[in-house]
Design a protein that fits this description.
2 copies of one chain form a homodimer. By secondary structure, chain A is α/β, with parallel strands linked by helices. Helix content of chain A is 37%, strand content 19%. In chain A, strands 5-4-1-6-7-8-12 form a 7-stranded parallel sheet, with helices on both faces. Chain A is globular, with a radius of gyration of 20 Å. The relative contact order of chain A is 0.12. Chains A, B: Residues 3-202 form the NAD-dependent epimerase/dehydratase domain.
Chain lengths: 330, 330
């Protein structure tokens, strides 16, 4: 089995590569070669199965070299995040749209269509969400990042229909806890909140305690990416909204207080940015029975999310958070 | 005012070019140059305002030369039709998707965004339509042609949101009456029926008399393209489903009998192709109040459709067709 990961040195990519090397198989077959493609590859372990392809996904020749000996399963993770893609349109256009289309084209194989797992995004829904949402919600991209993600979803679905690429697209929510470094993600505050609280540092949260977002740990995200690769006998349905934890900042803080003690709560201040609040604070509850039916999952609970996101060994105190975000510890 | 038409030598393109030269203005300003781009340009009149750019839309350098002196309004009509694009994927991909994206890129101008009128298609809705439809129907492309049209709509909407291209996309129904020549269109029978009936020739219709499709004459289509260019102060809404005439083959035949006499009815036979019937015979009634509000229109009636499509001078007899397709002449 030959497996490829684009964006292999990224936050989710590293974790996925490590997991693939650990389990050593995908779709019930042993991984002989793991092709890793990224602009840097310094975060990846030494392993004889790794084939390092160092460079940009926008380099079609690099892609051709990487795929020269064939590939069975591809995890296409690389992307320029929403904030950066909005500011640098041309970069987002080349990486998020054109490189993805080129990859799809190079993967076309009607005789033995390779499995492609594509990391799409909940950004495709756009700004105006209904009070309650389910998997049938139409896409309505409001950012170039989201427009390009949606366009690639459509291309993927078309090539799956043609039987040329066995594509599967997952719409990912905000994934935590990303490393504390500039990453161009507007949702970076979700990870920063977790890291600073855990470290006992002061943090000014750019959205209100009532702001509700969709959360998923990188570990859970990797579970879902692998699950997507395992699925068989798919019909025309090729795009799934992953189950998510719908949590307010107050609920996440309660979970953090539970894990790291309530003292750090005093170090958290709030200075809501109306634009961020509008983009990331108004996510409604989301039902995703179809995705759950297929074995996709979220982290189960705030405690599960924090355990998975921050690699916590076990739980300490419990805390209770009311719907209104009032904290109380039993 | 500098105006460009891609696919200028096509069925709708020729009519649009002729109309632009006749009226001599767009958006209230005189047309100084009309840039026409196509692989052949033999169907266009002699006119000092024409700037002929002979070649393929997939030639980015040709496009750059054509746009070198700037452009105010672009009508982007060229496309590889659905049947041909499905059979020759790479051709459809390059013309319908990549050349459109390249055109959009070359038009980007935040200081003075050019108006772009894009000919999209009702094909974006896909196969399974509800019993009644309105403008809110989500797209669900089931052909590569439709997938690529939908992707370009999304790119257009994104660049309009960014204020870089003042794009407007119209979803066109089957346009009649196309010249009787191989054109790769699966809906060619709609035009063939009109031409053969008018000529008094025998014709075997590949869909049943009950098959209902959406109809529009090329003349009406040109009206709508020009209307789209005139619109001002548009918000985020950039994609419109045009009003259509929802007519069964029986209703169209009744109109033809009205215009050309009922004798020719005997020369029409039916041999429904299940695939064509499924693709083009199941179109439901369609409400499009938003588009009507903006001044978009259909041909008004079967008689209007045939008059516009076949360039008929006036009406002769009247005929009545019942809902079930039973003919009777008063």
């Amino acid at each position: 089995m030959r497996v490829m990961v684009t964006g292999a040195n990224g936050f989710v990519g590293r974790l996925l590569v490590r997991r693939l090397l650990e389990t050593g198989e995908v779709r019930g077959r042993r991984i002989e070669a793991l092709l890793v493609l990224d602009q840097a590859l310094d975060g990846l372990p030494e392993d004889a199965r790794l084939r390092r392809h160092h460079g940009s996904i926008t380099d079609a020749a690099l892609l051709r070299r990487a795929l020269a000996d064939g590939v069975d399963v591809v995890f296409h993770l690389v992307s320029v995040p929403g904030g950066a893609a909005e500011a640098q349109y041309e970069l987002g256009y080349q990486v998020n749209l054109q490189a993805s289309l080129e990859l799809l084209n190079q993967l076309r194989n009607p005789n033995r269509p390779p499995v492609l797992v594509y990391a799409s995004s909940v950004a495709v829904y756009g700004g105006e969400l209904p009070a309650r949402m389910d998997e049938g919600q139409p896409a309505s991209p409001q950012l170039s990042y989201a427009a390009h993600k949606r366009m690639v979803e459509i291309a993927l679905q078309d090539l799956a229909r043609r039987g040329e690429v066995d594509g599967r697209a997952l719409r990912l929510p905000g994934i935590v806890a990303r490393p504390r470094e500039p990453n161009g993600l507007r949702s970076a505050f979700m990870s920063d909140l977790l890291h600073t609280y855990a470290a006992g540092e002061a943090y000014t949260c750019p959205v209100s305690p009532e702001a509700c977002a969709w959360w998923m740990s990188a570990r859970c995200c990797v579970d879902n990416l692998l699950r997507a690769a395992e699925l068989d006998d798919l019909g025309s349905q090729r795009i799934w909204q992953l189950p998510v934890l719908h949590l307010s900042i107050a609920q996440v803080l309660a979970g953090l207080a539970d894990s790291f003690g309530a003292d750090n709560l005093a170090r958290i201040a709030f200075d809501p940015d109306p634009q961020l609040e509008a983009l990331f604070g108004r996510y409604p509850p989301l039902r995703s029975p179809q995705a759950r039916e297929l074995g996709f999952c979220h982290d189960g609970s705030v405690a599960g999310l924090l355990r998975n996101a921050l690699d916590l060994p076990s739980r300490r105190n419990r805390c209770v958070v009311s719907r209104k975000g009032v904290f109380s510890w039993p």
